[in-house]
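A reminder from the course coordinator: this example appears on the midterm review sheet, so study it carefully.

Given structure:
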């Protein structure tokens, strides 16, 4: 158990958790947020880093210190497993429906490349890893034992996915039955929280953000690329013999 933290550290941890619990669920409702997704979230990344520094957190605390960008064995294994998983899902016909998502059906190769190389790495992965596994987890570690800091970080990360999950269900026609929709959102929040716990564990084990960034990036960008590959294969005309 860490010693009693100064009041400003406790206040910063509470504010950080509250802001992250609401940010994606409030701003994400507006069309302008989607249009300016990358620059807005890049700016938010810089903002939380400035706020963290002002609260007394160092680069090493956040996971950005010297030598903290080594993946480590665990990071390489988990990122490799995620890549292999998407390859398996895209290859096996029975698992391909997992990749179906109407939100990305209209994307061509260039659009998918933008998603996988710019939007997801900068707008999603960098922002979320700095905010959650970096700033929030570090601020909570100052006032809570490490397991509790991981639990709270992961819970807030689950809440972060409330609105995106509801939007995905509605876009894919899966929100017509309110009970099924609520169950779907609850399941997605629980899965996101569990994934967040893994990312937080990697952050603690590796000593930096490189491992969670790598796993998060392969998971999200890998899904986009795998879905595009399956769609492209399905649209390819059969050769006539």
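Designed residues:
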């Amino acid at each position: 158990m860490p010693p009693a933290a100064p009041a400003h550290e406790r206040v910063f941890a509470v504010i950080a958790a509250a802001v992250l619990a609401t940010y994606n669920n409030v701003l994400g409702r507006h069309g302008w947020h989607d249009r300016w997704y990358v620059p807005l979230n890049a700016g938010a990344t810089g903002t939380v880093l400035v706020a963290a520094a002002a609260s007394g957190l160092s680069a090493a605390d956040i996971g950005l210190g010297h030598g903290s960008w080594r993946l480590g064995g665990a990071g390489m294994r988990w990122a490799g497993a995620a890549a292999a998983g998407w390859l398996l899902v895209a290859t096996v016909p029975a698992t391909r429906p997992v990749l179906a998502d109407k939100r990305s059906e209209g994307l061509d190769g260039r659009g998918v490349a933008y998603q996988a190389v710019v939007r997801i790495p900068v707008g999603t992965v960098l922002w979320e890893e700095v905010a959650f596994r970096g700033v929030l987890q570090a601020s909570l570690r100052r006032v809570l034992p490490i397991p509790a800091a991981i639990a709270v970080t992961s819970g807030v990360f689950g809440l972060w996915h409330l609105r995106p999950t509801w939007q995905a269900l509605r876009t894919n026609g899966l929100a017509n039955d309110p009970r099924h929709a609520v169950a779907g959102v609850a399941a997605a929040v629980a899965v996101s929280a569990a994934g967040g716990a893994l990312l937080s564990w990697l952050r603690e084990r590796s000593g930096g953000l490189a491992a969670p960034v790598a796993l998060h990036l392969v998971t999200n960008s890998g899904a986009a690329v795998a879905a595009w590959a399956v769609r492209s294969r399905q649209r390819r005309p059969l050769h006539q013999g």
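The first helix runs from residue 7 to 26. The chain has a mean pLDDT of 90.
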